[in-house]
Amino acid sequence: MTPKLKINKLLQLIGANEDTSFEYDEARTIAAMEKHHAAYSNIIIKVLSIIGGLLAALALIGFLFLAGIYESEQGLLVVGLLFAIGSILASRAIDHVFLDTTVITFYATGLILVAVGMMALEYSFESSILLVALLSCIGIFLSKGYMMVLTAVISLNATIVIFVMERLPTMVLLPVLLIGVVLFVITSLEAKLITSSEIVNSLFAPLQAGYFISFLSCMLFITMGHTFGLFMFYHNPVVLSIGIDVGILLLITKIINKMAVRELKHIVMIYAFALLILACVFYAPYIAGALFILILTYYYGYKAQVVISFVALLYFVFKFYYDLQMSLLVKSGLLFVPGVIMIALWFYVTKQLKHHEEN
Amino acid sequence: MLNISIMEEEKITRQDVHILSRNSNWAEDSVRETLVSSEIYASKSSWTNLLRYTLLGTGIAFTLVGIIFFFAFNWNELHKFVKLGMIEALLIASVSLVLFNKRMDEKIKNFILAGASVLVGVLFAVYGQIYQTGANAYDFFLGWTLSIALWALFSGFPVLWFIFLLLCNTTMVLYEQQVAVNWSKPYLYNVLFLINALFIVLMEFVYNRKLVKDKLRWLISVTSLAATTIITTLICIGIFDNGSENAFTLSVVLALVFFALAVWYGYTHRQLIYLALVPFAVMIIIIALIIQPLREPIGAFLVISVFIIAVTTLLITQLVKLNKRWHDTKIED
């Protein structure tokens, strides 16, 4: 569909509920749609850009270290700052999406070099992490291009988690919860955010994806348990679990409203079933976390994220059963019983839906 | 006329809404309504479908794994016929459900059949345990693969094909370890590459003839990625070993044929995956060629970094152009 046709279709859709005061800049809209379609319509191009950038960054860091840059602490810091700031400026100056790869490479390398350089120069941990966080913030608000903002968001969240991990280890799960809350808020307030201003509108997609990746990475980090995961620092997941569970229940409420479930009996059953599952995995917040992002992204229609969340959930469930310190017979029962319950529920739900459709 | 049909096929995307909103005075409530009405947000029917498939899918998966765990538990007390009989009964029950239940949805039947295919493996494992044939015997996997071959063929279900392909690869690896011990590793990987490449050819044929209803491109992409990775790794290893083995010559020939065919096919059939994979693989091979003769590859790293940036940027630029051209001609048609 050409941009013009798309716009017409959209206008038709809006026409039904929009007053006559609606105005838009046709030329700019068409240009933006064409540009986006050329660059981002294909997932293969996206993946290629990311992998290429990553490989190039690794080779570049390899060169810098082999060439002995680590021998000069100032050199590390200066090169890092040059790379980071230079890439932000470049992303603004050259407005071509295909240069994303190059720019991200230098940006990511720059952030790493700054962190290493600050440490080598024996600056305090706080000031080092603060500088990286600052560069990430500048990256989010001043750079242009989807991938740049995405990288900056992930790096900002990483600095926050690392800071809390080092300085306030008993609160290490709080920033994780915070990332989850921000993800929920951003994703659910899409209409409000994209209409608020042009800048927020452009930032929305990479911000949402960045928080999604950050949250998922945290969940993955938690599953690593006591070896080098987040539980190494603090192993009481109560606050995180409750937070995620509240998020899931909020989403379930939204789904109940959407599906127009009215009967009290059904509503009680849905919540009871949800609470039962959440209670079972209370001490494995990563499962609830994966469920949370799965429902959230499905609700708001982020197809790629749905697939990633689903794969994560499969892995986490596997990990959960693998880690259980119980005999195979007990595990077998713990798998078989929920399986049969779910099949029974499927029969019940199918019957109810059919009954509902017939009425 | 075609324009209209294309317009009806393609949907409004989230990005379209964002772009129009950025360049207009579109009100928040109306944007929200559009996101819902254009089904960018999950509709009621898609939730219903999700609920149906998830409950059934996870239900079957949990039950099956539960059963497998039960068997894996120390069950020496059970008589061997009981062990085999239980799995066979389950197998017969699930296949009967697929064969004789006329009202059941095709998709659900396919998933049950995929579950039954896993059960066949369990049956072989139990047989192996009882008669001490070893759980990783290659003929056990061969038997499993052959037993589900007909189901895979007639179901036309990509998930089942994926299981089948995994089994083919595993069988071959075990065959090399247990029987063809005189094969060199590069030789084995050449064979694995050939199996996967053959699968790609068959699946592309099925895809072009529209012989299956289910989505197939994901499986073709995964298999292409696997085949390209195998052959690229083989060649890189060969380069570092100075290409002394005959198997290396075979790999080079296979790679040349595969890469040429893939690029030709990708270009003529508008499949971007091959046009991305092949140049990327060639790039990796060239990097191996640059590093190999150098004793201290310090400078090479800088060259490689610049090389990767240049090639990837060039590749993306060309793919974007090509994609746009294909898209434009599709509309003009």
Key features?
heterodimer; A: 359 residues; mainly alpha; 16 helices; 0% strand; B: 333 residues; disordered N terminus
Unreliable sequence segments of chain B = 1-8
Q: What spatial form of chain A do the alpha-carbon principal axes imply?
A: globular
Query: How much helix, percentage-wise, in residues of chain A?
Result: over 70%
- How far is the N terminus from the C terminus of chain A? 38 Å
Number of strands of chain A: 0
As a percent range, the share of strand residues of chain A is: under 5%
Continuous helix count of chain B:
13
General form of chain B? flat
Give the CA-CA distance, first to last residue of chain B: 10 Å
Mean pLDDT of chain B: 85
Largest interface: A-B, 89 and 83 residues
Indicate the structural class of chain B: mainly alpha
Please estimate the helix content of chain B. over 70%
The radius of gyration of chain A is: 24 Å
> How many whole angstroms does the radius of gyration of chain B measure?
25 Å
Assembly type of the shown chains? heterodimer
Residues in β-strands, percent of chain B: under 5%
Give a short account of the largest sheet of chain B: none
The total number of structural domains of chain B is 3
Rounded mean pLDDT of chain A is 85
